[in-house]
Design a protein that fits this description.
It is a single chain. By secondary structure, the protein is an all-alpha fold. It is 85% helix and 0% strand. The longest helix is centred in the middle third of the chain and has 45 residues. The protein starts with 7 loop residues before the first helix and ends with a helix.
Length: 53
């Protein structure tokens, strides 16, 4: 059986990568929330323009 040997620097790199991926997840969630708000705004604008016609 083979075991993966991780040195201190490897675990540091891994925790950095994990921290980065967490902040990336936050960014993606923000983008997702933003796109939802934009969709709502666009729907409102479309509804308003249909009323205006």
């Amino acid at each position: 059986m083979m075991y993966l040997q991780l040195s201190e620097s490897d675990t540091d790199v891994l925790s950095d990568v994990l921290a980065d991926s967490e902040s990336l997840t936050d960014v993606l969630n923000d983008v997702d929330a933003l796109s939802e708000s934009l969709t709502e705004v666009l729907n409102d604008v479309l509804a308003d323009s249909e009323i205006a016609h």
